[in-house]
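for the writeup, i need someone to sanity check this before i put it in the appendix. the sequnce is what the collaborator sent (i think, or maybe the updated version? ugh). structure was predicted straight from it, no edits. if anything looks off just tell me and ill rerun, i have time this weekend
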Amino acid sequence: MQTTNFNIKIIIAVSFFYFLSGFLFAQKVLDHELFLEKIKHSSDTIYKDCINEYDAYIEKFPNDVSVLIEKCKFIQYAQYDDYYNPNQSAFDSCSADIISRFSTHPEVLLFQTTYLWGEELEEVFNNAEKSVTENPQQWKNTDLAALYKAIANYYYYESDYKQSLIYAEKAISNDSQSLLSGKVVKISFSIYNKLNINVYLFGYQK
């Protein structure tokens, strides 16, 4: 059969249609926005699955303070991005619940020092030190060290170096093994330098 110019044009048009269709389909499938949308939905699913696991455990052990705090921390950081947490209201509810139920628990007080600042943080420090005085048996040495380290850091960045030094030394005295080579000692040496004090700290010269 003889191929006419008209038939050739039809063949070319059909071929181009299939090529264009395949090209557009590939573009649609590989579109980065589609992938980002897919990841977003996948992330939401994973987030919900994790929350369900926490809730299932907490239903059986409602007073497990450590796990309650871990759930709050997960909510706080799971989808946090660029100083924005889409789950902020859920975090606020989670943290408020454990604070109301376990207000004097060392772990709960320490947890609050990780995200509060200003007058609210000072109030937590006051409550924690009151708890240490009234219920010293509840506080492990490692918890005391963590508390005093947080207070030392707070005073350091407030430029109250003398108070910072007092709490830095308290932190080290309660858990020297884990803190001796860490940030608390570095802060202590820095404070000594700022105050122009020549002393030895746990066998180390400043």
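Residues 8-21, 23-27, 197-206 have pLDDT under 50 and may be disordered. The first helix runs from residue 5 to 29.
thx in advance!!
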